[in-house]
Amino acid sequence: MKILVIYIIIFLFALNDLFSHFNDRALDANLLMLVNITILLFLIIARFQFYKIIRGSQQQVEKDKEDSHCVALERKAYTITSFIQMALSLSFLGLLIGFLLLRETAPSVPFWSFTLMIISVFNFFPNPKLMRITNPNFQFPDPQSNHYNQEIMDQFDDGEKYVILKSLLKVYSVLIWGLVILASGLMYYSIFSGNSQLISIIGIGILLILIQISYTTSLKPNKLK
Description:
Layout: H1 2-20, H2 27-57, H3 66-102, H4 108-124, H5 128-134, H6 148-153, H7 158-193, H8 198-219
Helix pairs in contact: 1-2, 2-3, 2-4, 3-4, 7-8
């Protein structure tokens, strides 16, 4: 609960910073500060959900409701992960944009983003308490193991592996189409604005090649001995 209180205090401090310097900052600085406040809100929601899961795991439920209760806790756990991932992504983008646009005029704003990114990274690490609740039999393998990813996957049953595979395939499709659309958009932007985005387009092309080759290679069957 202490961490939640700290997040709320930081949130209130950030709000005060936004309103007290609203007229002194440019529009882009205020917008980016608003993004930082949104990140804090995501972290607060994630931490609040975490405490709800802890309390929920200590509740005594009837036997016929145990399965639905466990599913509800697991859904909340994934909600926590989603909010933390959004916070991490937004703080990273905020840091890049803030450093690019505001490093001289309003350096405190990208510094906020940097601080929130560090906090989000620490929140992103798997929480042992949460894992014991959502997946009691799961054990993290040795991080120095040469087969770390394989040892993680081996702990899931066939149904869980199917869900993971289905999700990854969906992510792969969205990522490929997203990069194609982005590259096409950059091409038209270069044509109509006169600002060349050639480096970005080349980078996207290289990324597309690497993703597709990596995906196809992973599907290739091993040689028979």
